[in-house]
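Ligand-bound model needed. iron/sulfur cluster.
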Amino acid sequence: MALEKIKQVSGTAVQVAGDDIDTDRIIPARFMKCITFDGLGEFMFYDVRKHEDGTEKEHRLNDPRFAGASILISGNNFGCGSSREHAPQAIAKAGFIGIIAEGFAEIFFGNSTTLGLPCAVAAKEDIQAIAAAVEADPSLNVIIDVESQKIRFGDAEVTCYIRESAREGLTEGSWDPIAELLEGDAEIDATAKALSYV
Amino acid sequence: MAKSLFEKVWDAHIVRTLSSGETQLFIGTHLIHEVTSPQAFGMLRDMGLGVKIPHRTFATVDHIVPTNEFAEPFSDPLADAMIQELRKNCEEYDITFFDLDSGKQGVVHIVGPEQGITQPGTTIACGDSHTSTHGAFGAIAIGVGTSQVRNILATQTLALGKLKVRRINVIGQLAPGVYAKDVILHIIRVLGVNGGTGYAYEYAGEVLDNMTMEERMTVCNMSIEGGARCGYVNPDEKTFEYLKGRPYSPSGDEWNAAVEQWKSFASDPDCNYDDVVDIHASEIAPTVTWGINPGQGIAINENIPSVENAPADQKAGVEEALEFMKFEGGAPVKGIGIDVAFIGSCTNGRLSDLEEVAQYLPGKHVAECVQAIAVPGSQVVAAQAEQKGLDKIFKEAGFEWRGAGCSMCLAMNPDKLVGDQVCASSSNRNFKGRQGSPTGRTLLMSPLMVAAAAVSGKVADAREVFGVAER
Ligand code: SF4
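Prediction:
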């Protein structure tokens, strides 16, 4: 199972401001009644984007200036809450290929990496600078360089952090570990045998 | 070398080191439900993979089941498709399924312990963040995403990075009317909603020692709300007592051997922790959340924070929360009117939760303007409660008595808030929209505090409403 080596992702960006953006906000539970992930993109940030009657709220995600953005920018503890993979799936299905935030909740980070969706951690000031630049020029190309842990936008460059195991997985094309897990079959059997409760 | 329980269990389950540097960890017990597993089975099929050890996966249905409608097909065709899919997958791959007609169905984190599937010294995973609940038995229990559910089905393993361990000592004695729920809400308030990032929480100290297994489950359940990947309590006599005689517990000669082994997993007294935090029980009061994350909690007699008085780094969060909740900064939390009262969920939907409330209900009645529902966490809990007559007590007091399920903890079944209703809830999350209405407002608290709010029609101090302290 050869996977794409994700060394960098680039595109225009949009900010969903705020800390502790939870998975219920990313994909409200009522849209999780599904047996495949197809079609989830439509419901990404649904209540953030829409009023109860379905009309659109004023939000960057609805702003035509940011249409087609593929890099998501947010605050600290992004993706906290549930373990639902529906959250990163919705983000990916909505066309995003990378996320920049001050911090990520553990499970969300892992789920995203497994989908080949890089999550880059950047300092608050740097995120503010990127967001300001994008606000000023929504057509600005933002690059998450996974390999060198840099974010480039316009002439500027800031440092970001991507956990080594994730970086390794993304750049080596092993972000979905299933192939390697399957290779350990004999060792799995040995471990199982040693555990009395299995 | 002295080791913590986390290290011992981790080491016993290491398969090998992966090229990423992560560990391939064996998952002894895998629990699945209808929301996060169908896509995983879909992936298995797409990849032509099978289920490696079917007898180590157990399934139940909880999130989407209506708790007041038992006949199938359900009126919601999507819910119906999900239960059918799970049934089909379990049948095809030979997985034990505690289905609606089994008498054992319920919220996955209540079913596992109650069936004796959850055991000390094991690794447990489930496509659900509140898997941390099972840590109450001295297991490493983690919530995972759907791709990882697929990985476990296919290989019975996960790729994981090792966690650090923070020991949280809760010292002293809890005052009457202060419950396990208050302990964990207080811990999250003190350490923050992301204070646990990268950690497993080891809960210990006199308060945890004195807790029942069900209370320990309440604490471990909300580890995830504190940002920790898992939480656990070292196994002791109470753990063994609880497990004895359960359907999946070892029996006969195997029992004594199992207990000996379980004991050996407890943290060594002189082991090293990456961090140690002391929490004083005397500082814990009945706690209520006023905001939109579980760390935004205060003691019942405190005032809601105001933007002006909030620390600089919290101002924006407080402002957003106050705006959403339509509460006034600086006002008391006590006295806020409620519309709905919900007792249930994997945090507080066990028999002891219902019993605790029921003993105070006789002579009281739910306020006229309030819809109150009591939802047993599993069919077993429901049957035990009904045998004790608790259903009658709840009903006489004006509660609706429901069947087992997640119910109003989240909005995947008919139980939902409407508009900007305020709900006093014994569940674990107060996120925007969590209970089904995008503008619905959730106040987390202990079951007895929910009952106090239900009978008062507003947030109230259960100790005063029910005379708890004098008992
Ligand atoms: S009761 Fe609530 S938190 Fe627990 S599993 Fe169900 S939805 Fe999740």
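The pocket of iron/sulfur cluster is lined by residues B 62-63, 107, 109, 128, 130, 345-346, 406, 409-410, 427-428 (CB under 6 Å).
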